[in-house]
Each structure stands twice: as C-alpha cells, then as structure tokens.
Amino acid sequence: MKLKYRTSLKICGLCGIISTIIFFIFIGLAIWLSPWFSWTDHFISDIAGSLGDTPIWAGRGVASILLNSGLILAGLIGIIFAFMIKKTRLFQSNLGKIGIFVLFVDMSALCGVGVFPITLGTIHYGLSIVLFCLIPICLYIIAHEFGNLYGKKLWFLLNLILVISLIPACVLIFLPNFVGLTKAIGEMIMLLSFYLTIIILGIQLIKTTSVEKLKDSSKKVI
Questions:
Q1: 67 part of a folded domain
Q2: Most Cβ neighbours (<10 Å): which of 6, 92, 107, 210?
Q3: CA 38 to chain centre
Q4: Is the peptide bond before 168 cis (omega within 30 degrees of 0)?
Q5: Is residue 133 a part of any domain in this protein?
Q6: pTM of the model
Q7: Rounded distance, CA 53 to CA 151, Å?
Q8: 135, 174, 180 from 163: Cα distances, Å
C-alpha cells in the first residue's frame, strides 16, 4: 500500500514537470517560428492567427499548430496533475479542496485556449480571462497548502512567486500606460510564475516518501 501511494506521488510530480516541459517547448518553438511577433505589441495568442482566419487551428501555419497543440497537451496533463493531487489526499483542508478545483479549472482553461484559438473570438477571450484571473488564486492556495507540508522556506518561495505573478495586474491597474507589461510580457510573467510553482512542487512530490512525516515535521516550522 505504501509503495502504491509513493508511486502515486511520483506520478503526480511527473505530470507537473511534463506539463511544464511541453508548455515551454511548444510555445518556445511557436515564438521562434514567428519573427514578426513582438512581446510589447502582441499577445501570445496572436501567434494562432487573427479573428476569422482559416483553418482555425492553423491561421499562421506551423507556429499556430505548435502553439495550440502545446496549450492543449500541457492543459490535459495539468488536469491529470490536479486529479492526482486529489487522489494522493495532499490537500485535506477546505481551502485545499477549493485549490484543487481551481487548479483543475485553470488547467482546463489552458487546454480550452488551445482548443478554441483566437481565430474564434469571444470564447477564446473568455477562457483567457478565466486562465489568467485564476492563476494568482491558485498560486496563493498552493503556497499555503504546500507550505504546511514542506515548511517555511518553501512557503516563502511560493509566496514570492505569487507576488511576482501579480505584477502585470498591478501595472494594468496603476500604470496602464506601460502597455508592454499588459501584453505578451505580462502574460509570460504570469505563466512563468504558474509553471515555476508547478515544477517546484513536481520535484518535491517525486522526492516525497511519506506525507504523514511531512505533516509532523512541518508543525515545527509553521
């Protein structure tokens, strides 16, 4: 039983790491194949095309296919990651259970942004808003719950990443003239923060052998 549980923890961690790798490889290639792309003038979704372009998943050729495929694959594996966190019973508090649901919805939105690219208009914009609005909420809950499991140092690190993820929102509210940080740069800051948190947790989960020991040891520092 313990071996089966440790295996579930490792699968959970691997899903987080694989989702991260797929996301950045596919998005990186899509950007590399789009020499016209500007971090200050475009959104990442613009690589997929423009409203009304056909075919809807290849509005700008191979770059669009890579972008949409990467979002879909990373989102699907991220959904499995959220499911595995639930299965391993890492988050037992009410806040933790909400966090699992938020992570599931966020990963579903990421997948949906690829399934319904910018060429389709409204539905894509709606999913994008859900994705980016939920990232800080998700990071806050993850920082709290994993901080309780892994200790004070990880709690501080994850909360620092959370603060960084809020930079684009703060710029949009207080410094709207800095449009660059509200375009692709702002999106990437949030996505980097999101996936940096995911990969940190993925590594920790792979190294974990007993959640009960973590809970006992964390009481000494939090």
A1: yes
A2: 107
A3: 22
A4: no
A5: yes
A6: 0.92
A7: 49
A8: 11, 16, 19
pLDDT at 210: 60
The structural domain count of the chain equals: 1
The pLDDT assigned to 207 comes to 87
Amino acid at 153: K
Residue that is written with structure tokens 């004070």 in the block: 152
Q: CA triplet 103, 105, 106: central angle to 5 degrees?
A: 60
Range of the domain at 61: 2-37+44-209
Note whether residue 216 is domain-resident. Answer: no
pLDDT at residue 136 is higher than 60: yes
| DSSP annotation string for the chain | -HHHHHHHHHHHHHHHHHHHHHHHHHHHHHHHT-TT--TTT--GGGGG--TT-SSTT-TTTHHHHHHHHHHHHHHHHHHHHHHHHHHTT---SHHHHHHHHHHHHHHHHHHHHHHS-GGG-HHHHHHHHHHHHHHHHHHHHHHHHHHHHH-HHHHHHHHHHHHHHTHHHHHHHH-TT-GGGGTHHHHHHHHHHHHHHHHHHHHHHHH-S-HHHHHHHHTTT-
pLDDT digits (tens, 9 = 90+) for 52-107: 999 999 999 999 999 999 999 999 999 999 999 998 888 888 999 999 999 999 99
Q: How many residues does the chain have?
A: 222
Does residue 58 form part of some domain? yes
Which string of b and e fits 63-74 if b means at least 16 CB within 10 Å?
A: bbbbbbbbbbbb
φ, ψ for residue 174, nearest 5 deg: -100, -25
Are 84 and 11 in contact, with CB atoms under 8 Å apart?
yes
Token digits of residue 199: 């990969």
